[in-house]
Amino acid sequence: MANPRIFISSTCYDLSMVREQLRNFILSFGYEPVMSEYSDILYDPRIHTHTSCINEIPNVDMIILLVGSRFGGQAVPEALSTIDIDNLIKERFDTSVLEKPEKLSVTQLEVLKAIEYSIPVFAFVDENVMHDHFVYKKNKPLSNQIQYPSIEKQETAEYIFEFIDFLKHRNVGNNLIQFSKIEDIENHLRKQWASLFQRLLKDQRNSTTEHSQMFAISEQIEEIKTAVLSSIGNKDNRDVARGTIKYRRLVDFISKLNNQDVKFIYNTELSFDDFIKNVGIVQIENMPVSRGPLGRTALIKEDGTFYEFKFPKTFINRLADDWQSYIKLRPDVREVIYEAINDLDQHGLFLVRYRNEQYTEYIKQFNKTEKDDEEEEFNFSEEETTNSTPKTE
């Protein structure tokens, strides 16, 4: 029977006792800890040890990240080359830490590889480090003049704090937990793993019920489609009937974007990318969001205002496929399908809404909200902690 493999990612010297206790905690659940000091990683003699650590990440089920006082070893270029930095930059909101990838540590690369493979990361930050991180954020212009008591080597403080920011501003999985003792970590993991197991059981029940319901509905739809299509006398009418089912999402999408004469849609042979440019959209970006299981996409116009698409950018690829299929139809068939969908569905699917505000201003406001949330967290932390504020030199 396969057991969950849990990789403990951290610097070893300063966190050795925590790592050892975590190992026992993981074993008590019947799970398999993966730790470098126990030779749980294959150190292939043909490659660097940093690369061996990175190569192990796709083989695990989750990562426990511990952020302490040390930065750790700077990753060698060979290990860095295994990370798709460009893709991470595209998919993450705060990417300042990735602007100098050569400064990343091997521990940080382990986390980036996990993110690349959508492996869950449970991140824990020493409360003293987190306190100094708040000081760093509030005094960033003077950060190089401040001594941070929690950081062993002051020249590494920036890279540790910026990586914390990167983790906090991920689009998903951005929860960071402060800890002062191993019990803080154990209590959090115990509750989280129990909740995940409960959610798995619930989702499995719901999935079974939904699958049965969807199967019954699907059978009914197929019966209706068969009856309707069999009653249609010629091929063109059958194409229209199929099209009103197949292209509903596409028509809802393009009808919200196209401000021109709708006849353009009936006759164009433009590719989907060229169509997007033709309606005045110059940039498509994943929108930063604080809540929701799915991301959203901003389709930014030439004047800086934007359309908000309620699904991640990857979903637009599906619309592009539908578009390529749609424009292969004859113009008269396209017209009938387009009008039929609009007549049948007056309210649409609400995939897209126009936001008459500058996207740059939206980003600024989002940043401000995130910063305010951090300051609230900082103020709460100040009330709870007995740590003294670090002094400047």
Gist of the model:
This protein has 393 residues and is an alpha/beta fold. It has 15 helices and 9 strands. Strand 1, helix 1 and strand 2 form a beta-alpha-beta unit.
Provide an overview of this structure.
With 393 residues, the protein is α/β, with parallel strands linked by helices. Helix content is 51%, strand content 11%. It has 15 helices and nine strands. The strands form two sheets. A five-stranded parallel sheet has the order 2-1-3-4-5, with helices on both faces. A four-stranded antiparallel sheet has the order 6-7-8-9. Helix 9 (235-246) packs across helix 14 (331-344). The longest helix has 50 residues, at 182-231. The protein is globular and about 75 Å long. The termini are far apart. The relative contact order is 0.09. Mean pLDDT is 82; it is low at 384-393.
Topology:
Layout: E1 5-9, H1 16-28, E2 32-34, H2 49-56, E3 62-67, H3 77-80, H4 85-91, H5 106-116, E4 121-126, H6 127-138, H7 157-168, E5 176-179, H8 182-231, H9 235-246, H10 248-257, H11 263-267, H12 272-278, E6 281-287, E7 296-301, E8 306-309, H13 316-326, H14 331-344, E9 352-355, H15 359-384
Parallel strand pairs: 1-2, 1-3, 3-4, 4-5
Antiparallel strand pairs: 6-7, 7-8, 8-9
Low-confidence stretches: 384-393
Topology as a string of helices (H) and strands (E)? EHEHEHHHEHHEHHHHHEEEHHEH
Helix content: 40-55%
Query: Structural class of the secondary structure composition?
Result: alpha/beta
The largest beta-sheet arranges its strands as 2-1-3-4-5
In round numbers, the mean pLDDT is 82
**Shape, per Cα inertia axes:** globular
Instruction: Tell me the β content.
Output: 5-15%
Tell me the Rg in angstroms: 26 Å
Distance between the termini: 57 Å
**If helices are DSSP runs of H or I spanning 4 or more residues, what is the number of helices?**
15
Number of strands: 9
User: Largest sheet, if any?
Assistant: 5 strands, parallel
